[in-house]
Amino acid sequence: EIRPGLRLSPDRPVSVIAHRGASEAAPEHTLAAYRRAIDEGADALECDVRLTADGHLVCVHDRRVNRTSNGRGAVSALELADLAALDFGSWKKEGPDEDPYESPDQEESDRTSVLTLERLLQLVADAPRPVGLAIETKHPSRWAGQVEARLLQLLEKYRPVTPVRVMSFSARSLHRIRAAAPHIPTVYLMSLLLPRHRDGRLPPGVAVAGPSIRILRARPEYVERAHRLGNEVYAWTVNEPEDVELCVRLGVDAVITNRPQQVLAQLR
Ligand code: G3P
Ligand code: CA
């Protein structure tokens, strides 16, 4: 089993994980956002995965596609072909500026269509430098293990040589991953710090704590407690310079950010 302590970037005090890609600059979870994050130097890419009605894992945050596409409906009720017909890029466009990551020779569909996890794994495999992956399982309880099974199948197929973390707010989802693939470190996400976790303890076998930055602002002592038990700490979503500074001061292992370029510049 890979023990905690494995860092995504041993040469920097804190690793930088691009949240939904470089999602402040480009539409979240699109190839353009991930290409930009790789270009900007992010150590790893974060993505949320959901299962479509016909069993494909796609990178979409919300239960429905309404906010991030020109379509409507729940991802779980749509097939991949339905999602592929939607535009996941235009909602973000502001002003006339051309996005250099949307080069005109790219296919229109490639730029704005729904991103499958398979395509993201391919992007990482083809990247000009090593880049890790932090994959978050969404709605895992609805599918009773199918999200995790499909995810592990794809990881087995692509076998990324760079670090992979599986993250979830669901301890049950992480348990399923560990039971089938104990070598993959798991990250337990927390938007609230429940009393049973305040001493740094995590669900059995979980290697990394994933507190929101709000938790760390209120309870900075949490990081030391987690570290004392041998757990790493990845904080989200860390966009403001003062929060980056706080994370560095507390010895947080990785920050998950919408602004990889700015955070990397601050850390330099
Ligand atoms: O990386 C953790 C963070 O992404 C969890 O919150 O809602 O952005 O998926 P959410
Ligand atoms: Ca997420």
Description:
Pfam families: GDPD. This is Glycerophosphodiester phosphodiesterase family protein. It comes from Streptomyces ovatisporus. InterPro entries: GP_PDE_dom, PLC-like_Pdiesterase_TIM-brl. The protein has 268 residues and is an alpha/beta fold. It has one domain: Alpha-Beta Barrel (TIM Barrel). The chain has ten helices and nine strands. It has an eight-stranded parallel beta barrel, surrounded by five helices. α4 packs parallel to α5. The two termini are 32 Å apart. The model has no long low-confidence stretch (mean pLDDT 91). Bound molecules: SN-glycerol-3-phosphate and calcium ion.
Describe the largest sheet. 8 strands, parallel, barrel
CATH architectural grouping? Alpha-Beta Barrel
Helix content: 25-40%
Beta content: 15-25%
* H/E series: EHEEHHHEHEHEEHHEHEH
Bound molecules: SN-glycerol-3-phosphate, calcium ion
Number of self-contained structural domains: 1
End-to-end CA span: 32 Å
Please give the number of β-strands.
9
Number of helices: 10
| Shape category | globular
Overall pLDDT confidence: 91
Judged by helices, strands and strand pairing, the structural class is alpha/beta
Radius of gyration: 18 Å
CATH superfamily: Phosphatidylinositol (PI) phosphodiesterase
Query: Taking strands numbered 1, 2, ... along the chain, how are they ordered across the largest sheet?
Result: 1-2-4-5-6-7-8-9
Q: What are the segments in which pLDDT stays under 50 over at least 5 consecutive residues?
A: none
CATH topology: TIM Barrel
Q: Give the CATH level 1 class.
A: Alpha Beta
